[in-house]
Design goal:
The protein is of the alpha/beta class and about 575 residues long. The protein contains 13 helices and 24 strands. It has helices at about 90-95, 120-135, 150-165, 180-185, 190-205, 210-215, 215-225, 230, 240-250, 260-270, 275-280, 305-315, 340-350, and strands at about 5, 15, 35-45, 50-60, 65-70, 100-105, 140-145, 170, 185, 190, 295-300, 320-325, 365-370, 370-375, 385-390, 410-415, 430-435, 445-460, 465-470, 480-485, 520-530, 535-545, 565-570, 575-580. The longest helix is centred in the first third of the chain and has 15 residues, at about 120-135.
Length: about 575
């Protein structure tokens, strides 16, 4: 070996993060190859546009299975070791020594690739088909192609799979986005904490090239980042730190076109689900996917990728085999290195024909936060989880009798900007409400779909509902568990596509809120698996605007405000539905 392979064995560069979902594997490919790299290789698409790729391959001549990682992020730094939220292609020094070619590609209009970036639309899907078939035909390829990577790299995998390139044999999309409307908005609430830094980052990095990303300064920094003691520190570099890093890039200049145009289209011109967004939604197309698919995410990725994992799982009806791995805190960190042993077992099975044991046992493996034990289920949600209704009492207690038997109400108020008030009045209703259970007599574990049925009367024709489920310890410290979001004017539910705990909101038809009329809102809360310890309290936090930094926002994903003044009465007939596991 010219450089040590990464892995978890002595003498290897040690990878951060959990590497398996608790299974024991066998017959895994051993690291026996040196690695060479071909930079800036053009991969033509059907319209003549060339995508730029870097090819990492075994130095030994031969034909090998190929793993493609494709995104708009700078391919030149994907192996730099930098703890940045776009270093997500996987570690070449893990896969290549074990007999794979790792192709890292820049999508159209980014990183030196031709054309104009089109933001995960049908053009991008066609390019991905062409990229797969190009890779399959190269002299270093044996014709068996897989795809890997997290976040955007994960979305690219399923985007390619719906186009059905003949040589794509298996994918492993972890923490992906499959309907960009539901990431750029949360049921109609603009997710400015995500989209603004995301597009600025791609615009800034796409304007740079080899002169910057392959410079001696970057190479020296990469060498320092791979020092074991330095590298180990990134093991707990979580999603919130990732977003904080992206926001730093907001201060750096980037070209206006097409980045500002895309931002304006997403957050200003297309506030509701329409044809523009439909072109960036592959959820309705997932029945086309026939190849084996390994889905996964971590439970803390609430505001971006976590819900997409379950939406995809519901729709992958024709895949040859679907498997799921759900990780606990720090299950995903940056640079992405977790689950590489799991990925090797997956691709060794499907691309090399090894009997690795990856298919043995329940196909869904998951951690319950607060419990380090791996759990298994053939289906999701786990069949043993049963929904329990917690009423939003008029006294602020979470529990007791809700539904038609609930009595009482509580009032809250949200104000727009420009009110010309020096300060709030002591007689103002609060801008947040919380409901707490009494301290728990025993541990309480949940896993599955969560929903808030909110009965409210409002004084404005539209407003935001932002919910946070929290764990309150005996000292009063709050841990954010998961969140739910809804723009009131987009409250319409597709009942045929819904189930208890998981209402499906088309977000297409705006309906003004009838002022002064009681309305029942079904607010989906992002699924989770979590254990509340005895002595803790379960809290439901409710607000109409989360711009105030003192309000909870997981990973700091905050939203643009509706901007209307509103007083709301929340009735005790409201219920929080939590999927409880047997004690």
């Amino acid at each position: 070996m010219n450089t040590p392979a990464s892995g978890i064995e002595p003498g290897q560069r040690q990878l951060n993060g959990p590497q398996t979902t608790g299974r024991q594997y066998r017959n895994l490919s051993a690291p026996t190859h040196d690695m060479v790299r071909d930079d800036d290789v053009p991969a033509p698409t059907r319209d003549g546009t060339e995508l730029m790729v870097d090819v990492y391959r075994p130095s030994t001549p031969g034909r090998y299975p190929v793993l493609i990682a494709a995104s708009p992020y700078a391919r030149q730094v994907q192996n730099s070791g930098a703890p940045l939220g776009f270093i997500e292609a996987g570690q070449s020094d893990f896969f290549v020594p074990r007999g794979y070619v790792h192709v890292i590609a820049n999508l159209r209009g980014t990183g030196g690739s031709g054309g104009v970036y089109t933001f995960s639309d049908s053009q991008e899907r066609r390019d991905l088909y062409d990229l797969v078939e190009w890779a399959a035909a190269q002299p270093w390829s044996d014709g068996n192609v897989g795809m890997l990577g997290i976040s955007y790299f994960a979305g690219s995998q399923l985007a390619a799979a719906v186009e059905q390139p003949p040589h794509l044999k298996a994918i492993m999309p972890i923490a992906g986005t499959y309907d960009f409307y539901r990431s750029c908005t949360h049921n109609g609430l603009g997710s400015t904490g995500f989209l603004t830094p995301f597009l600025a980052m791609i615009g800034m990095t796409s304007s740079k090239g080899d002169k910057v990303f392959r410079s001696k300064l970057v190479q020296a920094a990469s060498k320092a980042l791979h020092i074991p003691l330095v590298h180990k520190r990134f093991e707990h570099f979580n999603g919130e730190a990732m977003i904080a890093g992206l926001k730093v890039l907001l201060n750096l200049p980037h070209p206006s076109y097409p980045w500002d145009d895309l931002w304006r289209s997403a957050l200003v011109e297309h506030p509701f689900k329409d044809a523009w967004w439909d072109d960036r939604d592959i959820l309705p197309l997932l029945d086309r996917v026939t190849i084996p698919t390994y889905l996964g995410c971590d439970w803390r990725n609430v505001s971006l990728h976590l819900p997409h994992t379950f939406w995809a799982l519901d729709r992958l009806k024709n895949s040859r085999h679907v498997q799921v791995g759900m990780l606990g805190e720090y299950g995903l960190s940056w640079p992405w290195e977790s689950l590489h042993i799991e990925a090797l077992a997956w691709f060794d099975h499907w691309l090399k024909g090894h009997d690795t044991g990856i298919l043995e046992g329940p196909r869904v493996r998951y951690i319950v936060e607060g419990d380090a034990t791996w759990h298994g289920s053939e289906t999701w949600p786990p069949p043993q989880a049963v929904h329990h209704a917690y009423a939003l009492g008029g006294d602020g207690v979470l529990g007791g009798q809700g539904g038609e038997g609930g009595e009482g109400s509580r009032r809250m108020m949200v104000l727009g900007t420009g009110m010309n008030r020096a300060r709030p009045s002591e007689t103002d209703p609060p801008d947040t409400l919380v409901w707490d259970t009494p301290p728990l007599a025993q541990d309480l574990a949940m896993a599955g779909d969560i929903e808030l049925k909110l009965d409210a009367v409002c004084s404005a024709p539209d407003l935001a509902w932002i919910v946070c489920l929290q764990d309150i310890d005996p000292a009063g410290k709050a841990t954010d568990v998961t969140q739910g979001y809804l723009r009131a004017g987009l409250r319409e539910v597709d009942e045929a596509a819904s189930r208890t705990g998981a209402p499906w909101l088309p977000c297409r038809n705006f309906q003004a809120v009838p002022v002064g009329e009681k309305i029942t809102y079904r607010i989906p809360i992002v699924p989770n698996a979590y254990r509340f310890n005895a002595g803790h309290r379960v809290r439901l936090f409710l607000t109409n605007d989360d711009q105030d930094k003192r309000k909870p926002a997981i990973a700091q994903f905050r939203h643009d405000g509706i901007g209307l003044n509103c007083i709301s009465d929340i009735f005790a007939s409201s219920e929080l539905l939590i999927p409880l596991l047997p004690a």
